[in-house]
Amino acid sequence: VKSSTSVALSAAGGEAVEEADSGLGETLKVGTYFALWYLFNIGYNIYNKQALNVLAFPWTIALIQMATGILYFGPLWLLGLRKAPKLSFDDMKTLVPIALCHTGVHVGAVVALGAGAVSFAHIVKASEPVVTCLANFLLLGQVLSPMVYATLLPIIGGVAIASMKELSFTVLALAAAMLSNVSSSLRGVLSKKTMSGKQIGENLDAQNLYA
User: End-to-end alpha-carbon separation of the chain, Å?
Assistant: First the structure.
């Protein structure tokens, strides 16, 4: 007959194994999401560049791409397959600046891809952490440790060297990619400043917020 102590230890061991399996499963799931994100992002950028080579109107293409979302979410909301968000006027005032930043992210990226090489656009976009640190300091007063700032130096140097050596360098590609960077950083900072710990409307989950 097992003692109560041995039974308790067995139960604790079983819970530990379950927690370990759960942690491993969560890690694999997140890793899969990251891999799919990179895979689809690569395909999206290549397709965008091919489309821009055929139709050199980046603003038009960016507008069509963003408007296409209406064809997906609109029927879902109208048919009740997904609950439509309910927003007050104050909620709209909170979300409009974030939506404008999102627009800047997308339009800037598409214009950059049209004005230069895909690789160059992404090299410049790699400097987004630098812009985010600056935006955090200016808007939130957040100061990070010197070690964090030190890690930004290789990024700044890499982008500078790549810009000097890039054969297809154009000022428009650099400016558009930086517009995308600034917009993305401001979107994150504004979201944190205005939405953190605050209930915005009804049914505003991640998918509806992105829509």
Answer: 61
